[in-house]
């Protein structure tokens, strides 16, 4: 698995379609298959090496810190399927933008670990809540922000966590309005793929406001433009963070990823 993962990183293809990954014995959706789990394990440890994540053959896994386990599973973030009114409305108003969304919605920038808090004897299935919110990722993030303190009180898995930590570890800070505005101010409307990794990382390293208001797609008339840019931006940024960390760890240039 490690060799295949390193080969993937060398392609720097943050728009790779993860639905092409082989189905595993437990029939996990693509966001929970080995390549995705290995990617997020590497990302979390690159962002804060006091955390670790297990790679499993199941739909769920654990983030670990100080011998405490934090139960998570995985989800597709922004869903373009027309059975949801939000996506249907976007397709009706901007089919070209919707087509781009549909093409890349299984890329790594649109996949993420999500918490699976246990409240009493019941599990709070955020995938189900996401569906009830019309698959709107901005709304799910707001739901998480509003309920995280309750989960900490009720759920032993979330004691050593916070919504801010979750956003950092999964590189979803780009969904904070202030962070996204900072990116736009720095790079404007340039094509994400044309931004050099070192320039993107320089910007990321200067971002201090890892908290604040979450983006709301309802407030933007050009929702699809921002959804597509966020998917691409987050994917490229995550890959750059992982590669930088691997190269930092490597003792020999011959084993580093370029």
Please explain how this structure is put together.
- This protein has 258 residues and is of the alpha+beta class.
- Helix content is 48%, strand content 10%.
- The chain has helices at 2-11, 34-47, 85-93, 95-104, 126-132, 137-154, 163-169, 177-187, 197-206, 223-249, and strands at residues 52-53, 60-65, 68-76, 111-115, 118-119, 122-123.
- The chain has a four-stranded antiparallel sheet with strand order 1-2-3-4. Strands 5-6 form a two-stranded antiparallel ribbon.
- A hairpin with a 2-residue loop joins strand 2 (60-65) and strand 3.
- Helix 9 (197-206) crosses helix 10 (223-249).
- The chain is globular, with a radius of gyration of 18 Å.
- The mean pLDDT is 88.
What is the element string, with H for helices and E for strands?
A: HHEEEHHEEEHHHHHH
Radius of gyration: 18 Å
State the end-to-end distance: 20 Å
What does the oligomeric state look like here? Answer: single chain
Kindly state the number of beta strands.
Answer: 6
Mean pLDDT score: 88
Major β-sheet profile: 4 strands, antiparallel
Determine the number of helices (DSSP H or I, runs of at least 4 residues). Answer: 10
Q: Unreliable runs, pLDDT <50, ≥5 residues?
A: none
Principal-axis shape: globular
Largest sheet, spatial ordering of strands: 1-2-3-4
Strand content is: 5-15%
Instruction: Give the helix proportion (percent range).
Output: 40-55%
Structural class: alpha+beta
